[in-house]
Structure formats: C-alpha cells, structure tokens
Amino acid sequence: xxxxxxxxxxxxxxxxxxxxxxxxxxxxxxxxxxxxxxxxxxxxxxxxxxxxxxxxxxxxxxxxxxxxxxxxxxxxxxxxxxxxxxxxxxxxxxxxxxxxxxxxxxxxxxxxxxxxxxxxxxxxxxxxxxxxxxxxxxxxxxxxxxxxxxxxxxxxxxxxxxxxxxxxxxxxxxxxxxxxxxxxxxxxxxxxxxxxxxxxxxxxxxxxxxxxxxxxxxxxxxxxxxxxxxx
Length: 231
Description:
cell membrane, Rossmann fold, alpha/beta, ATP-binding, 10 strands, 36% helix, four-stranded antiparallel β-sheet
C-alpha cells in the first residue's frame, strides 16, 4: 500500500451518479469531490432525498459511479472487478447503520468474530480482538448475550465494534445514533469518536443532529449534487 493511499484512504474525484425514472434521467450526484484523511471524522449533514445514501453507497463500493473515480488506498476501485471490490469492502471499509443489523442467533462476541473469520483471521485472534473491542465499548460483561438481550444502545455499540473489527481504513455511518434516545446517543457517539480517532480511521458520518455534527472535524452537505463545506 502506498503512503498516499494510507494517508488518504478514500478519495472521490468528480463522481457522478444518475438513475433512470419514468420521467427520464434523474441526476442525483453531479460532481462529488471528497478526500478523507486517516484519523479524520467528517459529518455529512444533508436533507433526505439529497443523495446522502447514494454517496455512502458509492464511497463504500456498494455501487459504481457513472463517472469520476472512487480511490480506495490509492487504487481506482471503480475500475476493479467485482471480486476485488468485495475484498476491499470486506477488509478496508466498516459500515454502521441506524439499525444495528446484528445476527439475532449469534452472541455479541460471535457477531464481531464472524466478519474477521470471513476475512481469514483465526478464531482465536478474532475472539481476542472481539473481546478487546467489546471491553472498549463497556460491554465486556455482555460478550455471551444475544442481541435480543441487549438494550438499543448496547446493540449499536456491538454494531460499531463489528464495523471496526477488521481494522478498516474507512468507516461509513448512516445516522448511527438516530434510533437512540438523546442521552444514549450522546454516550454511544462519544465512544464511536474515541474508537475511530484511536484507530486513525477515516470516517464519514451522516447525521441530522447538529450537536453531534459540531463535534466532528469538519462538516459537509449536499447541494445540487455537489459536496459543499459548511463553516
């Protein structure tokens, strides 16, 4: 991996994405330029329908752009075949959603172990990593609990720990505390910021909460299909 790639894990250059509708072509993103640096946490503050989810899907290699480049660790991921994109997504990108999407039949620890084992990590090493992450999120006593036995805040902590399990270079989060009450959201968000900064992950976090956005390194919004820096 080049130094450029590791210092700037994600770079989007003139990225475009449109969709076909009954009324014709709908241009959602027209020219997205974004650089995420290692250890930087960027707030994406954008109204519903502005293309926020489309942007996150492109950044996370879940979708391909119609134009422009999505550079992951210095490589043009848009030009890679699907299997290579899947490998990058598995090894280098962590996702956190508003709803935790934990596997209900597996314990908190197993939910963090599984993605590591899929990536080729031994069970022993994966369990050690999972226990360390759960302890860091104050869940050392919950490792054997099924998601249904955890509170909403605890479930989301497990989801964040799972997203960080494979030591990603990039973390993408879509309203990660949007399903939590204000007090719990504040606690979980503090833990998320601490973990991301501690591991020097480049993070793009979509949120409607101005208080949370203000605590990140910088804020951007979507306007007319472009990213605009907010003061």
